[in-house]
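Backbone shape codes
____________________
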Amino acid sequence: MERLPYLDYARVFVAYLVIFGHLLAMDNHIPRDFIYAFHMPFFFLVSGMLHKFNGQIQWQKYLRTIGVPILFFNVFYFFIINPIYLKLGVYGEGGDITYIDCLQKGLLQLKSFVLENGNIPSGVTWFLIALLYQKLLMDAFKIHPILTSALYIIAFVLLIGMKAKSCYITNGLMVFPFYWIGAQFKPYIEQIVFKRGGILYAFLCFILLIGIVWYNGRTSTRGIGFGSAPIPVNVLLFYASGLIGSMMVLFVSVKFKSNKHITYIAMSLITILGMQAVFNDPFRKFCTTEHYGLMAIIAMVFLLLCTGIHWLIMKYCPFFLGKIKASK
């Protein structure tokens, strides 16, 4: 895989913001709304920039590298994390609930994932499911651009209009423009972010983003929320804020030189984003605090813990992450 140091820094920084944002109380609007305006759009934009098309739809590769981690994280949550956390009251249960009760609740989640609102045992892995859709859709676009574009537009209007959430298909449609822009315009994006005066441009992006967030409110790629502005203004602002926030991070990240530790953390992103709820959920339940300095430190600790878990998985059972060989 192509190693781009500035993308490594950018991805690690935004992964840190994801963890920090998840530590905040749900009703916290500052800085949670600001982070939510661009954190997931950024990951899909950068994933698009790293997309490699070899002339066909690489569904076997994607099922191994993305589908296997989806299965692993959800099996892990289904049989281990959710029963423990339900028993402890992290998810609002506790008391005399049995292990069988927990598994039954997990089965209801799986039914909901297929038929209703998209919940799965490891809810944070929605982004992996959406990423799988992005890769398949982008390959299809490369092969049949007109047909794929027409089908995408029809599905976007119908499913997002109905706010359908089954299997996170609508979420995938919602974020595909970011992935498409990253894949199609990577050279132009790099030309822009490597221009002189990047810090000034980043500051201007920051000011613009603050204004959009103030007007449009919180957006949610998982909850299919485009913001509180009138339709279709909120939709336009959602995509504007995602792009502006992503460019803001990229303008800053190009100022840093390659670092092997940052690169390794960036290579651990699937595990970081898939495992961070293991630490975040009980913290938010039992250790609620609005002390931003403390949460900033804890977010860094959780980031490093997830990186350590990634190292263990890659060393002893890499097939859980769709890898063939263990790391040395």
Observations:
- Residues 5-71+122-321 form one domain.
